[in-house]
Structure prediction request, 627 residues.
Amino acid sequence: MEQLNKVTAGMQAKKKYRIKDRVLSEIGALEWPCFFTITRRVRSAEQTVMELTREALLKTYAPVAVLVDQLGTIRYVHGHTGLFLEPTQGYAGVNNILKMARKKFRRDLNKTLYQAITRRLAVDSPIIAVRRKKATEGLIIRVLPLLKEGSPAQKEDFYLVIFEQNPAVETVNSIELGNNAAVDQELMAINSEISLKKAALTQITAELETSRQDLDLSRSKLHTVKAHLFDAETEFQTLTEKIRQSQKELEILQNELLASQNELEANQAVKQPIAEKRLPLRAELDNLKNEMLMADLALKEKENVLKQFNGSDQPIADTPASVKQETVEPEPSVKPFEPEIVPDITIDEYLSIATDYHSKPDSFNDQASSQAPIEKGMGFFSKTEPKPFFQKNPGLSFDNEADLVNQADGTKELVFKDFAEFQTAASHGYRHDSELKSVVIPEGVEVIKRSMFYQCTQLERVIIPSTLKVIEDFAFYGCESLKSINLDSARVLERIGTSAFEGCRSLIQLVIPDAVIEIEEAVFLGCQRLQSVAFLENSQLETLGSHVFKDCVLISEMILPNQLKHIGISCFYGCDNLNVIHLPDELETLGEYAFYGCNALEKIDVSNQKILKQPGFSVGFPDGVKL
Prediction:
C-alpha cells in the first residue's frame, strides 16, 4: 500500500512538469529537437517511526553479512564490508568472497566456509584479534547454511557469512592468553618431539656410520677377492697355455716318432738286402786285413834281423851258430782270427781301399811299424788308437739331398740346389739339428713346411726367397740363436703360422711384408730381444692372433697398420717397455687382456673410440693412461 502511494505521488509530480501542458501551449510550435535543461527538485519522503526504529537497531546490533553460494560467489551484501572485504586487482566483475577477503581473514574464512559447506551445519571460526585505531578488537566469522530443503521456493543452497565484531578487549586478551598458553603447550610438545627425533636421528647416524665402515671393509675384502680371482684366472690362463703348448709339442713329437718309425721301417727294408750282399765282401775284407797284419809282423822280424846283421863287425858267415840262435827272436804266437764289427761300407769304398792297399803297401807298412805290439782282439792298435780305415756312415742318404757346406768362418751352411731338392728335404725336415747354422732356401719355394727347422738351436741365419707365400706352424720354433731372417724380401708372403718363431730369443728386429694378411697365434711369443717390428706402408694385415707379441719385453713402440681389424687375446701381454701404441681406424675387436702388464704404457693413439667402449671384458690398460 505504501509503495502504491509513492508511485501515485510520483506520477502527479511528473504531470506538473509536462512540457506540452505548461510550455508549448504558451509559445506555440517549436522546432524539434529542443535543447534546454530542466531542473527538478523532489522532496525526500518522510520515514515512518517503524523505519527509523529498524534502521537504528540494524546499525547498532545487526552485524555485517554476505550471502554466497557453494562457489563463494556473492549474491547479496548487508552492511558496510570495507573492513573485511576489498575489491581485487584485475578485471572488474570479480565478486568471489574468497578473492575479495582481506589477507588477515582469508585463511580463517576459507576454512570456516569449507567446513560449513561439507558438514551442512553452522560453523564458527576461532576469535580473530584485529588491531584497529590502537585498540584490539575481537572478530568471529560465522557461516549459516540456508539450504533449499528448508524453503520450497528456493532453487539452490546459500550460505550467510556473518562478520561479528566483539568489542570486549578483555575477553579478546584472555582469549589471546588462552591461545598463547595452548600455543606454548603445543610448542613444548613439538620441542619434546623434536628432541626425540634428534636423538633417533643421532642413533640412525651412528648406525649409518657403522654400516658405512662395514661397507668399506666389505669393499676392501671384495677388492682383495677380486685381485686373488684375477691372479687365479691369470695363472689358470698361463697353465692352459702351457698345456696347449705341451699338447702341441706332444703332437709334434708324435709326428716325429711316426716319421721316425716310418723311416726306420724303410731303412730296415733297404738294409736287409744290402746286408745280405755285404756278407761275402765283409768276410773277404776280414781275411785281407788279417793277411796285412801277418805281413807286417814278418816285415818287422826281417827288419830286426837286418839291423843286427848290419851292426856286427864280422860277416854273417863268420858268426857262430850259437850267436845266431841267441840273436834270433822266436816268432810270436798269433791267435786265431776273430771277426771284428766293421761299419757298413759300400762296394765302391771297398774296391778303392783294396786298390790303395795293393798300390801303396809302404804306407800301410809304415803305419803298422809305428804301432806297439799290444794284443787286443784280432789286431794291434796304438795307445792313441788311430782313426779307422773307413769314414763313419752318416746314415740313410736321400736322392737330391742338400749339401752341408763348411764356411770360412767355421759355420755350416745348408744350401739347396733347386726347388725339387728343397721339396725332398721338406718331407723329413731338420728337427733338433744342432750343427746347422745357416740356411739358404732357393727361389721357387712357396711353403716352408710345418716344424721343418724345429728347435735347430744353433741356427743363426735364414735367407728366404721372394716367392715364399706361407710359413707353416712351428717352422722355426725354438731356434733360440736365430738373429737374421729377411722376411721383407718375401713380397708375396700371406700367412705366418702358429708359433712359427716362438722362442727365437735372439731376434732383434723384423720387417713384416705388406702382403701378409694374418699372423696366427704365438708367432713371436717369448722373443725377449726383439726391439722393433715394422709394418710396411701398404700393409694388408687384418688379424693379429692371440699371444703374438707376448713377453716381448724390449718393444717400446708399435704402429699397427690401418687395415688391421682383429687383435687377439693377450696379444701384447707382458710387454713391459711398451709406452706408445697406435690402434688403427678399422679395428673391430680387441681381445681380453691384450695390454695386460704393459705398465710403461703412457699413450694410446686411437681415432676409433668405439673399440674402447666395449663392455664385458678387461683390455688391461694401466691406470692413468692417456687416450
